[in-house]
Amino acid sequence: MNDEPQGATGKSRRRKHGIYDSPTGAKLYNLWGRLTESRAHTRALEAARLAPGESVLEVAVGTGQLFFRLRQVERLKRCIGVELAPGMLDQARRRLARTPHPQGALCRADARHLPFPAQTFDLILNTYMLDLLSEGEIHEVLTEFRRTLRPGGRLILLVMAKQNWLVQGMWMWAYAHCPTLVGGCRPVALDDFFAMAGWRIESREQISQNGFRSEMVVARIR
Ligand SMILES: C[S@@+](CC[C@H](N)C(=O)[O-])C[C@H]1O[C@@H](n2cnc3c(N)ncnc32)[C@H](O)[C@@H]1O
Questions:
Q1: In this structure, are residues 70 and 125 in contact, taking their beta carbons and an 8 Å threshold?
Q2: CATH number, position 179
Q3: First to last CA, the chain
Q4: 3 part of a folded domain
Q5: Residue 135 domain flag
Q6: From the alpha carbon of 133, which atom of ligand 1 is closest?
Q7: How far, in Å, CA of 185 to CA of 171, rounded?
Q8: Which residue of 84, 139, 144 sits with most ligand 1 atoms within 8 Å of its CB, as the best mutation to test the pocket?
């Protein structure tokens, strides 16, 4: 697979996503993930209810925290992870190399232009990526997920939920003045995007860890 994804260049995009491109940013994110997102990752894996013979794609694996666990699910047909930022992908590759496993391939790719044929996957997992994207990009990505999922397939998303008033206030202040401080992420209301891109929401659930709230959305193609 191509290691230089389409549409991954633009200066403003590089500025916004820059933190994920550096080894330090990747290490910091790793720590943040362990403290605030690992419980939600566990819930996403439980909700996935993967069965032998299924094909699964994780989009935006980051440092591979979830992908590391995903590839241990037994007897999957395909288990592929993609990530756009080289710094994050590098960390994910190192993590996986530490405990080699027969299953699980990683490659560099942009969620907006996935290098897979239509109707390839039974499940797509995507965690804490939509919070980073512009509205136009969210629509593009949900449309691309729809193209690559099989009919009847499911999509599991984790996103940043709206926080309690104090955290929300401080977070949005930081997002407006120094987005790097909050990893370029903010809570996004996704309902309209799902409707526009032809998705039916099957369930949603909030998960809290150390004061940070996530939302899990399970959706299917309408
Ligand atoms: C907040 S991190 C989440 C990482 C991982 N999913 C997790 O839960 O630990 C967001 C990730 O999305 C990646 N990302 C952003 N835009 C992307 C795109 N268009 N295609 C693929 N990955 C992207 C970033 O590089 C970053 O690694």
A1: yes
A2: 3.40.50.150
A3: 30
A4: no
A5: yes
A6: 16
A7: 9
A8: 84
